[in-house]
Structure formats: C-alpha cells, structure tokens
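agent> Task received from the user: take the single chain below, predict its 3D structure, and emit structure tokens. No templates, no multimer pairing.
agent> Plan: (1) validate residues, (2) run structure prediction, (3) serialize to tokens, (4) report one or two observations.
agent> Step 1 OK, no nonstandard residues flagged.
tool_call: predict_structure(input=
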Amino acid sequence: MNIVILAAGQGTRMRSDVPKVLHRIGGKPLLQHVYETAAGLAPQTLAIVYGHGGRQVRNRFPDWPVSWVEQAQQLGTGHAVQQALPLLREGMVLILYGDVPLLRKETLQRLLKSAGGSKVALLTVKLEDPTGYGRIVRDSRGSIQRIVEEKDASPVEKAIHEVNTGIMAVPVSWLRSWLDRLDNANAQG
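)
tool_result: status=success, residues=189
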C-alpha cells in the first residue's frame, strides 16, 4: 500500500508567510499529525508532495523516512498527485492532505478495507452547511456517480449535504489512467 500526502498548497486564507502545513495545532505542525497517522499504517511507499514553502517544510522534518516530491508549479490537486506517480508501487494508494490533522488511523483502515484492493473508496462527510464544498451525487442504489464542485453545482446539487473530503483510496493503475485524462474543464479552471 502507498500513501501520498499532499502538502503543496499555499494556504492563502490563513494570511501567513508560514506554509499552511507548518501551522501548529495541539503542539505540533499540521503535517506532523498527518504523517504520524499515515506512518502508523505501515505503507510500502510514503510520499509527501510539497510546493509552497517547500524548503521550510522539508527542513522542518529532515529525518522522516519519506520520499519528498516537489510540485514546482501549483497546478492543482490532480497535478500534485501526478508528481508522485513514478514512486508508487502497484496496489492501492491512499491520498491524504497535509492540512487535515485530525484523522484517525482506524478511519483510514476502514476506508482501505472499503476499497478492498480493487475499488475506489472516498471519505465523505455530511455537513449542516456544505457551502464551498464539492457535493457527492449518488444514484438510486447509493453509489457515487460524480463529485460536483460548488461553482458547477445546480440548485438541486447545492441542496446536497454530503461533501467530498478529497481523501481516497484508489488502485494505482486506475489513478494512472485517470490522471492522464485530467483537465480543468470546470468553473474553477
């Protein structure tokens, strides 16, 4: 099993020169919480994709046994994952975010079990106010059909309270295929 932690974002809403993943909560940088949870899953490959403030991020954790992958241009989440693809072994990959520190190991184990080694499993959440998040559109059987970003959502889709966290378990082979076809054909660009 592979794990990719995305830690390249600027965190512009934080209005700080400190890289977002280095902000502290509970006495530790956000990224450290995520790393410790990820390492507890004993992945074969653990890669951290960094970008904004990369030197600061890498220098803060020089002894971590991870593969550091630079996202030189900030071209979005899919592009960040693409940067780590050459390091990934066949099998499953768990995609995490360096600024989501409160995930429990047990939650991620359940997500991996749900994927079963050959399916995609998304971690979703139901929010009272889902404004600003991508909505999870399901069919009549409860299967996820698509994720619709807020800016692209119809009024019916905006009424959906289940949202995408971005955290997923997916077969590496599927990810390679999907990322080759990735574009930015949405309202966000």
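agent> Step 4: summary for the user.
The CA atoms of residues 34 and 100 lie 7 Å apart.
agent> Done.
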